[in-house]
Design a protein that fits this description.
By secondary structure, this protein is mainly α. It has a domain at 23-96 and 107-145. 34% of the residues lie in helices and 7% in strands. The chain has helices spanning 3-21, 43-54, 72-77, 79-87, 111-126; strands spanning 163-168, 175-180. A hairpin with a 6-residue loop joins strand 1 and strand 2. It is globular, with a radius of gyration of 23 Å. Residues 1-28 and 172-181 have low confidence and may be disordered.
Length: 181
C-alpha cells in the first residue's frame, strides 16, 4: 500500500482508539477544570471514596487494569498522571456522552470529582515531603467496587454436553464440527 493511502486509515484507527479510551469533553457543556489549585483535599477523606466508586472495579488486585490504586502511596506517586487522565476524560473509560440517557454502572466523573484529582496532584507537587493523606478515620466505610462480572455462578444447573459431528460443506474441502445441545 502506498504510504499516503495508509494515512487516512491510521487516523481512523487512532480516532477509534481515542474513542474507546473515554469520552471527549464537550466544551459547550463541560466546566473547565482549574489545574494547579493547592487545596485541603486529602486522600482518605476525598480521593479514596472516589477511587472506590469509579476506579477500583478495574484498578484492584485481580482487576483488568495494569496497576492497582488500592495503596495510598501508589496513588500519591501517580497523582499527576491520575489528574491528567481524568482531566482528559480518558479515565475512567465511559463511552456514552453527556447527551446519553442515564445508564447503570456509570463510571463517568463530574467536573467537581475531576477537580479533586487536580487539587490532590497540585498539593502533592507543592508538598512532596508531606503528601496530603489526611486522617484514615475520615475515610467513609468502604464500598465494594461495582463490577459487571459475577464471581459466583447465577445458576446451579449443569451445562449440557454438546454432541458434535463432523460435516463436509460444498464450499470448503475441510470439515467443520457442528455442535448441538
Amino acid at each position: 500500500m502506498h504510504p499516503h493511502r495508509a494515512l487516512p486509515l491510521t487516523a481512523l484507527a487512532l480516532s477509534a482508539v481515542a474513542m474507546a479510551c473515554g469520552q471527549t469533553p464537550d466544551p459547550a457543556t463541560e466546566e473547565p477544570v482549574i489545574v494547579g489549585v493547592d487545596s485541603d483535599v486529602t486522600y482518605y477523606r476525598d480521593l479514596k471514596p472516589l477511587l472506590e466508586e469509579k476506579c477500583l472495579s478495574c484498578h484492584a488486585d485481580g482487576g483488568i487494569a495494569p496497576f492497582t490504586l488500592t495503596d495510598p502511596n501508589d496513588v500519591i506517586a501517580m497523582a499527576g498522571f491520575l489528574s491528567d487522565v481524568t482531566i482528559a476524560r480518558t479515565m475512567p473509560p465511559w463511552m456514552p456522552g453527556p447527551d446519553s440517557p442515564p445508564m447503570r454502572g456509570d463510571l463517568s466523573m463530574t467536573t467537581e470529582q475531576i477537580q479533586l484529582f487536580a487539587d490532590f496532584a497540585a498539593t502533592v507537587a507543592a508538598h512532596p515531603d508531606a503528601p496530603p493523606l489526611g486522617d484514615p478515620a475520615d475515610a467513609p466505610t468502604p464500598v465494594p467496587p461495582k463490577t459487571s462480572r459475577s464471581k459466583t455462578p447465577t445458576s446451579s444447573r449443569p451445562w449440557p454436553s454438546p454432541s458434535c459431528r463432523s460435516v463436509s460443506t460444498p464450499a470448503r474441502t475441510s470439515c467443520a464440527a457442528l455442535c448441538s445441545t
